[in-house]
């Protein structure tokens, strides 16, 4: 099992480079919620984001149809990003495995080691307690624009990496 | 291959952190972006920037491409999560407290601070409705006793100006943690090369970058650094971070930005609405200074140690307060918190009191008589007649700036020349 106390930059970068479609569980239709921020940012970076939220099912967020659950999504999902409390993660992990997702990602402040082990045994890559928007910004040179320490040092020109 | 931030040494970070070759031109050193504003891709991009939904440049009062390199550099050197640079150290203090306090709130500060900070906290801050309780920081129990339920922070200079006092950061951090409020350290006199307060439990670090970070006496600047480890939601004392922010349509900064929520708030509200942005040119000058921070600090402390020892043996000198001397009551704390040396700013007492102090500062030829510290040049001042003259006699003594006190900031000249100049000037007193 991966060490979930700290991830290497390479581990995160590899995920962000290989996934293209991200299902966001707990997606809010409110433009001022963190999930909306993350979806909007990732969409602009070229990812397809598919919102999942039973209360908004059938509606649209950021131009994408909202589904009640992961199993309702008709398209192939590469990554499941969870804006849900830790207790809700095991059921989401089961769905993520069932739909053949490649990555299970839990947002800042969310960690469920049992669900992580379950997903990893099924072959998924797992990230916990991180935000893909912040990690994308950190690894591809945008987070520093806000004065945040990225830990990234390079003597090469920065390149925008789009999936 | 993975690159973890902890793998880089201080000197590497001092040169590289935050900077990369310019994506368009390949320019290797950080360009001066003497620019105010940045084009939007479209209206939606503009909305995303105004709403803080994406990272990017909008207007240099908030972020600027040269300034942000400096911010990331200082955050990295301190081992912090993020930083906000601003026009001066005083502006940094204002930004930090503006982000933490509401009208009617209070905080406890060391009484051993730069005189300008005592005036800012004790008088100007009153007009924001903030009350500062000053205490003797040599015993952390004094801080504990002064805390009230309205106190939202503890503020210290871990290596105090005008001189010689080292505060027990770890003990202060324990008091702050017990009270569930952040410990703010002004680390200006030590610089992150000599001391990194976050490693001892501090939550916010402040610098006047005008001093050792810039290091050449040519550019004003300040910075607020956040450790990223304080849980703002552990109580209801910090609504600015944990409650919806009206001017951002109800955005909750701590929830949205997590461990750099304080930095985002200090920028998005503090810099935006108070306006003390750092000039890109100053950021460039300070960045250039920081590249040699380690080298300079090594020589600063070596020279300071030699000068302090010279003065301690001088017949016209009553006492020397430098934590690098065995005679200093802060010698042991200095060994713990400042093992590479306790800075290069210290005080000594000239025999003959106020008049002798005035005569001394007017007799130096090489050392400069001016109100600053942390320059390549050696500097001298008589605080009672200058930086601390707004204080009462009682405050002067309490702040370590009594009538016979002379403050030195030892520079990078040949140390024998510094000693010779002090010797001839002392003979004139």
Can I get a quick summary?
The complex is a heterodimer of chains A (163) and B (429). Chain A has 163 residues and is an alpha/beta fold.
Keywords:
heterodimer, A: 163 residues, alpha/beta, two-stranded antiparallel ribbon, 29% helix, globular, B: 429 residues, Aspartate Aminotransferase, domain 2, Aspartate Aminotransferase, domain 1, 2 domains, seven-stranded mixed sheet, disordered N terminus
How would you explain this protein's 3D organization?
- The complex is a heterodimer of chains A (163) and B (429).
- Chain A is built from 5 helices and 7 strands; from the N terminus they run αβαββββαβαβα.
- Chain A is α/β, with parallel strands linked by helices and 163 residues long.
- Chain A has a single domain, classed as 3-Layer(aba) Sandwich (Rossmann fold), CATH 3.40.50.
- Chain A is globular, with a radius of gyration of 15 Å.
- Chain B is α/β, with parallel strands linked by helices and 429 residues long.
- Chain B folds into 2 domains: 10-289, Aspartate Aminotransferase, domain 2 (3-Layer(aba) Sandwich); 294-427, Alpha-Beta Complex (Aspartate Aminotransferase, domain 1), CATH 3.90.1150.
- In chain B, strand 2 (106-110), helix 5 (115-122) and strand 3 form a beta-alpha-beta unit.
- In chain B, helix 1 packs antiparallel against helix 3.
- The longest helix of chain B has 20 residues, at 293-312.
Task: Produce the secondary structure layout.
The complex is a heterodimer of chains A (163) and B (429).
Chain A: H1 9-18, E1 21-25, H2 34-44, E2 48-52, E3 60-61, E4 64-65, E5 79-82, H3 89-98, E6 103-106, H4 113-121, E7 125-127, H5 132-139
Parallel strand pairs in A: 1-2, 1-5, 5-6, 6-7
Antiparallel strand pairs in A: 3-4
Helix pairs in contact in A: 1-5, 2-5, 3-4
Chain B: H1 10-16, H2 43-50, H3 65-78, E1 82-86, H4 89-100, E2 106-110, H5 115-122, E3 131-135, H6 140-146, E4 151-157, H7 169-179, E5 183-186, H8 191-194, E6 204-208, E7 222-226, H9 239-242, H10 253-257, H11 261-274, H12 280-290, H13 293-312, E8 317-321, H14 331-337, E9 345-350, H15 353-363, E10 368-369, E11 379-381, H16 393-398, E12 405-409, H17 415-427
Parallel strand pairs in B: 2-3, 2-4, 4-5, 5-6, 10-11
Antiparallel strand pairs in B: 1-7, 6-7, 8-9, 9-12, 11-12
């Amino acid at each position: 099992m991966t060490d979930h106390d700290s991830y290497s930059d390479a581990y995160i970068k590899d995920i962000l480079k290989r996934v293209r479609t991200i299902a966001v569980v707990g997606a809010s239709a409110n433009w001022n919620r963190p999930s909306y921020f993350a979806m909007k940012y990732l969409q602009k970076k070229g990812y397809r984001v598919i919102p999942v939220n039973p209360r908004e099912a059938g509606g649209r967020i950021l131009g994408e149809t909202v589904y009640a659950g992961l199993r309702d999504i008709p398209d192939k999902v590469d990554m499941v990003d969870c804006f849900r409390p830790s207790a809700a993660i095991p059921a989401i992990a089961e769905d993520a495995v069932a739909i053949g997702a490649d990555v299970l990602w839990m947002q800042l402040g969310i960690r469920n080691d049992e669900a992580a082990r379950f997903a990893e045994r099924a072959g998924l890559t797992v990230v916990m307690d991180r935000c893909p928007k912040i990690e994308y910004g950190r690894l591809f040179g945008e987070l520093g624009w806000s004065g945040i320490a990225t830990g990234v040092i390079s003597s090469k020109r920065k390149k925008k990496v789009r999936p | 291959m993975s690159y973890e931030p902890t793998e880089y040494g201080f000197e590497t970070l001092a040169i590289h952190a935050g900077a990369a070759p310019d994506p368009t031109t390949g320019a290797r050193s950080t360009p001066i972006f003497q620019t105010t504003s940045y084009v939007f891709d479209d209206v939606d991009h503009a909305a995303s920037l105004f709403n803080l939904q994406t990272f990017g440049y909008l207007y240099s009062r908030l972020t600027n491409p040269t300034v942000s390199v400096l911010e990331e550099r200082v955050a990295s050197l301190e081992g912090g999560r993020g930083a906000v640079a601003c026009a001066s150290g005083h502006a940094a203090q204002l930004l930090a407290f503006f982000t933490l306090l509401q009208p009617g709130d209070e905080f406890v500060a060391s009484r051993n601070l730069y005189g300008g900070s005592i005036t800012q906290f004790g008088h100007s801050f009153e007009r924001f409705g903030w009350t500062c309780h000053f205490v003797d920081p040599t015993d952390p129990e004094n801080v504990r006793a002064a805390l009230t339920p309205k106190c939202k922070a503890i503020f210290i200079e871990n290596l105090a100006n005008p001189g010689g006092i080292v505060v027990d950061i770890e003990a202060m951090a324990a008091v702050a943690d017990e009270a569930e409020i952040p410990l703010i350290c002004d680390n200006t006199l030590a610089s992150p090369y000599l001391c990194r307060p976050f490693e001892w439990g501090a939550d916010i670090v402040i610098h006047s970058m005008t001093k050792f970070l810039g290091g050449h006496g040519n550019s004003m600047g300040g910075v607020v650094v956040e450790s990223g480890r304080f849980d703002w939601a552990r109580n209801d004392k910090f609504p600015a971070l944990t409650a919806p922010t009206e001017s951002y349509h109800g955005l909750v900064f701590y929830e949205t930005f997590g461990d750099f929520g304080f930095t985002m708030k200090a920028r998005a509200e503090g810099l935006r609405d108070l306006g003390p942005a750092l000039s890109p040119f100053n950021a460039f000058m300070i960045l250039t200074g920081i590249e040699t921070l380690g080298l300079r600090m090594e020589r600063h402390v070596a020279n300071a140690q030699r000068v302090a020892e010279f003065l301690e043996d001088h017949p016209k000198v009553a006492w020397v307060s430098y934590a690098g001397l065995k005679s200093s009551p802060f010698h042991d704390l200095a060994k713990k918190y400042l093992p590479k040396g306790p800075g290069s700013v210290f005080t000594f007492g000239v025999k003959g009191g106020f008049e002798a102090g005035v005569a001394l500062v007017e007799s130096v030829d090489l050392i400069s008589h001016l109100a600053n510290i942390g320059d390549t040049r050696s500097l001298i001042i008589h605080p009672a007649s200058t930086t601390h003259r707004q204080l009462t006699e009682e405050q002067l003594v309490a702040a370590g700036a009594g009538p016979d006190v002379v403050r030195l900031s030892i520079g990078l000249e040949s140390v024998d020349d510094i000693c010779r100049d002090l010797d001839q000037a002392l003979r004139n007193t």
